[in-house]
Amino acid sequence: xxxxxxxxxxxxxxxxxxxxxxxxxxxxxxxxxxxxxxxxxxxxxxxxxxxxxxxxxxxxxxxxxxxxxxxxxxxxxxxxxxxxxxxxxxxxxxxxxxxxxxxxxxxxxxxxxxxxxxxxxxxxxxxxxxxxxxxxxxxxxxxxxxxxxxxxxxxxxxxxxxxxxxxxxxxxxxxxxxxxxxxxxxxxxxxxxxxxxxxxxxxx
Length: 204
Prior knowledge:
Nucleoside Triphosphate Pyrophosphohydrolase
């Protein structure tokens, strides 16, 4: 394992904004080491709890040139209100599932621009407008910040450009069909981002 510089700036503003009077005290970060690094980086963080007990915790996130990468998930809406999804194989579920378009934001790229780029690359659709409506952590042990965007006026006038490890098939769904996918266990990934986007689009 190799030592890495601790950088808490990315989360300190979040912790301050979300704190509550009845919250437990935050844990003290003592250090961290990289345990594994490929597409995903796994770090072991050493914490001291408020009671003095010290614990190790595994945290994960995809690495980029400027640290842990950010990602974006897009809810693409066509002019007639249909939702553009992608059907693709996911190694985690080990099956073909429904997804919303999205991916990693390039270093220096704005989240909205990254969302529009990923939309076209994965589906061949372009949009009239795209708006970031929020972001969320990818999981309780994740360092990965995932932005959520809503794209309006989506139409298949672009060019699909898939990575070597992607096999996305774009599928338009009605809102009822999309909600059915959300409610079906195991049918879809990224449901947290999907629900957040639907909420902001007043489609729940």
